[in-house]
Design a protein that fits this description.
globular
Length: 148
């Protein structure tokens, strides 16, 4: 069984049925599940989702209310397993950011990869593969590669 962590940009489009990428994302997640795979989310991804969902449309957000965003978060938590925060994540992250010499905002994405390593989750589904560092044992997948 293949385990996928869903990146923030994936769950944003998955919860926003008006998104042009909604069908692509929905089909990719459906394919993963039909093939016996499992999809996971993390508290970091949910936090990032909250930021985008509640941010005004004028600054690249969804402009959702707290109530609508909370409903979406509950749906995500009910639909996908949450990879818990563990003490193993921080030292893994620190090792990765120092060994890969990561600067600035990329440290957030590398933390997602540290969570994956700590939980033995092999794949990440993302619309932005270039945001992630190539790390042995982790496979970065764009939804287009599943729907081809």
């Amino acid at each position: 069984m293949t385990n996928y962590l869903l990146d923030t940009n994936i769950i944003i489009r998955f919860t926003d049925t008006n998104s042009p990428e909604y069908d692509l994302i929905n089909n990719a997640i459906s394919q993963i599940l039909v093939e016996g795979g499992q999809c996971f989310i993390t508290s970091q991804v949910i936090t990032e989702f909250w930021v985008v969902a509640t941010r005004p449309i004028t600054v690249n957000g969804l402009g959702w209310t707290v109530e609508k965003t909370e409903q979406a978060v509950q749906m995500l938590i009910n639909q996908f397993d949450l990879l818990e925060e563990t003490p193993a994540i921080f030292p893994q992250w620190l090792s990765l950011v120092t060994s890969h010499k990561i600067l600035g905002k990329r440290a957030h994405d590398l933390r997602i990869q540290a969570v994956m390593l700590a939980h033995n989750t092999s794949h990440i589904l993302t619309l932005n593969p270039q945001d992630f560092v190539a790390i042995e044992g982790l496979i970065i997948i764009h939804p287009n590669s599943l729907n081809s």
